[in-house]
What we know:
Distance between the termini of chain A: 127 Å
Distance between the termini of chain B: 60 Å
Radius of gyration of chain B: 20 Å
CATH class of the largest domain in chain B: Mainly Alpha
Largest interface: A-B, 35 and 48 residues
Mean pLDDT of chain A: 76
Structural class of chain B: mainly alpha
Oligomer: heterodimer
Shape of chain A: elongated
Structural class of chain A: mainly alpha
Amino acid sequence: xxxxxxxxxxxxxxxxxxxxxxxxxxxxxxxxxxxxxxxxxxxxxxxxxxxxxxxxxxxxxxxxxxxxxxxxxxxxxxxxxxxxxxxxxxxxxxxxxxxxxxxxxxxxxxxxxxxxxxx
Amino acid sequence: xxxxxxxxxxxxxxxxxxxxxxxxxxxxxxxxxxxxxxxxxxxxxxxxxxxxxxxxxxxxxxxxxxxxxxxxxxxxxxxxxxxxxxxxxxxxxxxxxxxxxxxxxxxxxxxxxxxxxxxxxxxxxxxxxxxxxxxxxxxxxxxxxxxxxxxxxxxxxxxxxxxxxxxxxxxxxxxxxxxxxxxxxxxxxxxxxxxxxxx
Lengths: 119, 199
């Protein structure tokens, strides 16, 4: 009770002493142990489990990278063959316009001009 | 050092028996340290196993013999820190449930000896755990290494890679917080304090 009252009064030396004493008691309350018989087997089991999981992730990652590379090669080849086979991509802008519109627009122009001349 | 560097080198090359010998040499020390860092005997073995598993996977990075022990301590500190951080909420609720009992123990430790030795040890552990809950997990581990494990500032410097003055400041502040908490606990537990409250 005396120690409590001195703590309450704020005696720093007393508090330090009591704390040191408590830490000492704590050390004795948590002694060094050897662990159980399954300590070492448990470590090896943990190592094996982690190696297996890292191997599994490694295999999945490798498979994903291979699939991604294969998909890019296939897409690249498809794009390349499509470009070569289609004339639309080789033509100039004017050629493309001609191919698309001129055949339908020209007769209309001619008809309208002749109609205007006759009037 | 408890093992020769040659043994570590053999373990680095994948020699399982060399690794087993390293574990056997350090298991007692690591189990004891973790027991005091986390204060939960039921979980000490799991956390210690985690330390040695981490050691196994990082052994390849070790270059010199001198750093082996500080480095093993560092792995121990990190594993304990992870454990404490995960179990924080659980621990706090347990502390709240047991606070009255712990509060009484603060007197018992300094004064009388309890009849039941194992029960007393458990109560000491609970009391210290409550006091250490006043500081962060980091400071709690640092304080335990210094005050309970008895590591020197030089040794702590090697583990934390922080200069001595910074460690002193952290230790001082952590200790002050623990003292303040201790004062609250002992003040609340003393019958005179309860009488004061009723009056």
